[in-house]
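Lecture 7 notes: from sequence to structure.
We start with the chain below.
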Amino acid sequence: MSKTAIHSDLLPKAAGPYSPAIAAAGLLFVSGQLGIDAQSGLMPDSVEDQARLALANLGTLLKEAGRGPEDVLKTTVLLTDMADFAAVNQIYGAYFPSPYPA
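Predicted structure tokens for the same chain:
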């Protein structure tokens, strides 16, 4: 199977031997995206800003691959504190159009 690695200089560098995204068989597989600023290497203090930045980083990879949020089929969101669920869920819901990813 042919596969193409997707990278962007606008994103933080991968911390290990993996690609930020791989395009193969008409699909795009994206590695976990953190709310880290590529320029400073820092993570914002608020969970809302972290969520926005993680989704912006995802959007950068999608754009590099010629895709958009409407093309996302499945996501996994990890939270360290479930008290942040409502705030992150609101930002997530505003980012993805309906029908939402699984």
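Points to note: The longest strand covers residues 3-6. The chain has a mean pLDDT of 95.
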